[in-house]
Amino acid sequence: MTLDTLPVGQRARIVAVDWTALVSEEARRLRALGLEEGARIAVAHRGILIWRDPIAITVGRMTVAVRRVHAAAMQVEPL
Q: pTM for the full model?
């Protein structure tokens, strides 16, 4: 399952990230925010537009907004 399909409120762990699907600057920023393999996350909120973009992700005590294309590059397993 990818992060963009994870239900709101569901906790999960990132098991893989397709770093090649992301621009190198975006990948570097996501890693700096802690969104990499092994991170425990939860979807806090989804945008209200047609594409439901952006997605608010809770990582530890921090909430980060990511675009759907970034979330689709992350494989997660529900906890």
A: 0.86
